[in-house]
Amino acid sequence: MIHVLIYFINRNESGDGEFDLFGGFREYTILGQCKGGTEVTSEDVTAFEETLSRFDRSKTIAILIARYDHRELLAQSNADVFTPNAKARAKSSEYNIILTDELNV
């Protein structure tokens, strides 16, 4: 049996606190949120976790996505848009949080 990822891109306003990507794969709920600005911080990850709190931790895959403006910054400076503290917070989260940019979703 083939399982298909079904997704929905929600184009709400910045700071709306909602998900930009929502779907499912097998028994997992997949949720994504895009972040703009110059960097993604541990505070962004913590806020994302608060939004995730209504979902089952064991069956949720969360994706925090750096938007296009982050990739331009990354290409220019060879720096990572996810701060070290953001990476540490995502790694220590009770949720399975993936940090990526929009080209690699």
From TrEMBL:
<protein>
    <submittedName>
        <fullName>8190_t:CDS:1</fullName>
    </submittedName>
</protein>
